[in-house]
Fold this protein.
Amino acid sequence: MAASSMDRITQWVSSQEVAADLTVRIADSVFPLHKAVMVPKCGYIRRAVAAASQPQGTGAGAVELDLSALPGGADAFEKAARYCYGGSLEITAHDAAAVRCAAAFLDAPDMARRAEDFLAQTALRSLPDAAAVLRSCEMLLPAAEELGVARRAADAVALGVCNEALFPTARPGAGATGWWAAELAALSPASFRRVVTALRCHRAGPEVVAAAAVAYAERVLAGILAPAAALGPGRRDRDAVVRADADQRALLEAVVDALPPAADAPLPAAFLCRLLHAAVTAEASAKTCRHMELRVAAVLDQATAGDLLGVALDGAGERVRNADTVRRVVAAFVERQQRQPPQTQEVRRPSLAAGELLSATGALEKVAKTVDEVAAEMATEESLPISKFVGVAGAVPRDARPSHDYLYRAVDIYLKTHPGLDEIEREKVCSVMDPLRLSYQARLHASQNKRLPLQAVLSALYYDQLKLRSADGGGGGGGAEEGGWETQSAARKARAQARADASLARENEALRSELARMRAYESGMQQHSKGSGSRSSSSSRVPAAAAGKKASFLGSVSRTLSRLNPFKGGWAKDTASIADGRDRSAMHVVKPKRRRFSIG
């Protein structure tokens, strides 16, 4: 382009039949011109020629100028030279900003006025042309910023986005937002930030700003935000692809930095979760990842289990890798809820993503259920450590869950997936739930669940037995219907049978172990008695040995059953606060006596 420009300028000079006395160099381009033509219309060239002619004392010599700093380069100078030689000034939306900046640099007021008229009357009147002007300003900084061209172009783009968001005009081959989203996607993050600032200055609604931000990010980061299945079989491992692309990582960080504040545009939770997953997968900076974690935590009550699970998975969407990220997001949400003053915790706020209104308590319960579902899905990962599972499941306070049934399901799945855990490890897994908060069906299942640790089963059975005895001793009330009594009787029978089965199995196991010990002891005594040589003395020791064995057997059984006491382990619960319609004196009457846990 520069070579063709130089050829055309040379033809103009040759047509004048006057030797060129002004040479302008712009990078690799050389323009032979006439001072008599350029000096009257360009103040910059006039001053430069005058300064170059002072040492010689005459203005007749040839002058060479270097204008490599000219905004727009050789293309913009060609238009200026053509205009100075009497040619027409042809301006388009793609070079209007360059012509305006070049005219200001050359101090050519007439050309600057022509460029301003084109910008005001044509280029900034439509969204596509305004976006083209704003894109061209990216290569003209800081001149475009100083002249206000970039700001005016951003204002025009923002106005067009507002009009399209409120009164969409679909185009052939594009959806309602497809065509103007493509115009935004062509902008750099810095230019998009100017558009967001302009939208806020024009007091655009949050839904408009959010729609523009989502459309821009999804277009610019299409390769990162795309689902793993869309990459094809040859690119299932997106981690290596994204990690190796430093430009994509820098672009992601720039897009995150250009997003509007949450107060101005509450972005959808699903979109923010995808952006957080992309930041973690692409190994973005710690600042970017933490910023996205806080953005997701602010709208976590609007996220689904699938959204949050997507954050935990790796780039291929197959294995759990980012459990710590999920834990930090949930912890940030809980901390955010706890920081709210009591008078504002019941204030209800709109949700752009889900269209729901939730109080602070309802939001916490909803997040707790979502976390339980995510924990159940993560529990199927065989390589998931106990600390990761407990960290995610225990990030929500216990009191936030009215029932622990969903959490019990997650715990049971984890224990089923990891059958090699010992008793201590299983107790650590179960430490995230409270057996006293299980429903009747869940307690019935837990009482027969051999995967649970013993203390968890006993805690559930004790609570069930306590409620049953309280119901039996509380009086009929004189008005219960026959169907209610039948249901209560069936429930008592089922609970009694479950307790009896669990207790019998454990007592049989304890007695079997004690019997094996007695046999070993008897075998040792018989071998010891063979060396005495006296049958009478041997027979005299048999009753004593039998008495000793009997005492040892009873003491061992007593110690074994005492270990079944649920109040001795970490699973013992304070049941004084259980609301069952009776006073505490009645509760003390039915409390198990001595140290043996009665299940009969």
Remarks:
- The longest strand covers residues 22-26.
- Residues 2-123 form a domain with the Potassium Channel Kv1.1; Chain A fold (CATH 3.30.710.10).
